[in-house]
Amino acid sequence: MPPEASPAGPCIFCSIARHEAPARIVYEDEGTIAFLDKFPLSRGHTLVVPKGHVDRLTELPREQYTPLLSTLSEVCRRVERLSRHYNVGVNQGALAGQIVFHLHFHVIPRYEDQPTFPRQRRGISDEEGKEVHGLLSRA
Question: CB 93: neighbour CB atoms within 10 A?
């Protein structure tokens, strides 16, 4: 996929990073930008984005890990002004819920009157556990 493009066309997050598209920016530095989600799951739902276009975390150059994590941490501190309870997440790929194909972290504040995730979780068989462990434990 060419830079600054997604299945839907030009990348809106690249446009925001260049200040060509409107956004409520809450933090910005040389390599990262954070702004309020246009379709929030809760009040204060913020996106943390590297300014350079990459679709996925695995495409991010290693030298950008620390600046991105530093910005994510700063945004979390700011979100704690709204609620000390929040989710930090990243969706990678359409089947995982990624809609904008530019790497971004969600910081989603949680509030008393708001449902979170289901409390009931399914177990996995030993066979499935061994298979998944084998796949994920390799370097």
Answer: 10
Cβ-defined contacts of 15-24 (< 8 Å, 24+): 16/49, 17/49, 17/51
Q: Using an 8 Å Cβ cutoff, are 79 and 47 in contact?
A: no
Tally of residues, the chain: 139
Please pick, among 85, 104, 106, 133, the residue that the annotation labels catalytic.
104
How many independent structural domains does the chain possess? 1
Return the pLDDT at 131. 79
What is the sign, positive or negative, of the torsion defined by CA atoms of 130, 139, 71, 13?
A: negative
Residue 119 included in any domain:
no
Query: Which pLDDT band holds residue 1 (cuts at 50, 70, 90)?
Result: very low
Q: Look-up: residue for tokens 């309020």? A: 36
The domain of 81 spans 5-114
Phi and psi torsions of 53, nearest 5°? -75, 120
Verify whether residue 53 is a known catalytic residue: no
For residue 80, what are its two tokens? Answer: 């704690």
